[in-house]
Amino acid sequence: MSIRATYALDEQTDRRIRRLAATWRVSQAEVIRRSVKAATEQADETLTPAQVVAHYAKARPLRTREATGRAIRALRNLRHADDHHRSSVK
């Protein structure tokens, strides 16, 4: 059994749905069904903050300490340069 529904879409979303329908060679309704299914599956896979912390606590670090130090220094330099730029532009 199908449920008929009416939704108001902006033009860009409508174009995207039509383009996907043509690419996938399915109806626009099928594009919406697949997209909603993919979005809900992705949302179901979202980790809680505690799960993210637990994952990284178990995992090997992505960088060495030296590489992390270099990244921190580079970001700090960028932040200071931006602060200097903002203070001189008034």
Specify the overall morphology: extended
User: From the alpha-carbon coordinates, what is the Rg to the nearest angstrom?
Assistant: 23 Å
* Sheet/helix structural class: mainly alpha
What is the rounded distance between the termini?
64 Å
* Helical content class: over 70%
Number of domains: 2
Let me know the largest β-sheet: none
Give me the count of strands: 0
Low-confidence stretches: none
* H/E element sequence: HHHH
Q: Please state roughly what percent of the residues sit in beta strands, choosing from under 5%, 5-15%, 15-25%, 25-35%, 35-45% or over 45%.
A: under 5%
Number of helices: 4
- What would the average pLDDT be, to the nearest integer? 90
Give a description of the structure.
This protein is mostly helical. The chain has two domains: 8-46; 48-90. Helix content is 72%, strand content 0%. The chain has four helices and no strands. The chain has helices spanning 11-24, 28-44, 49-58, 65-88. The longest helix has 24 residues, at 65-88. The radius of gyration is 23 Å and the shape is extended. The N and C termini lie far apart (64 Å).
Structure in a nutshell:
The protein is an all-alpha fold.
Topology:
Blueprint: H1 11-24, H2 28-44, H3 49-58, H4 65-88
Provide key terms for this protein.
90 residues, extended, mainly alpha
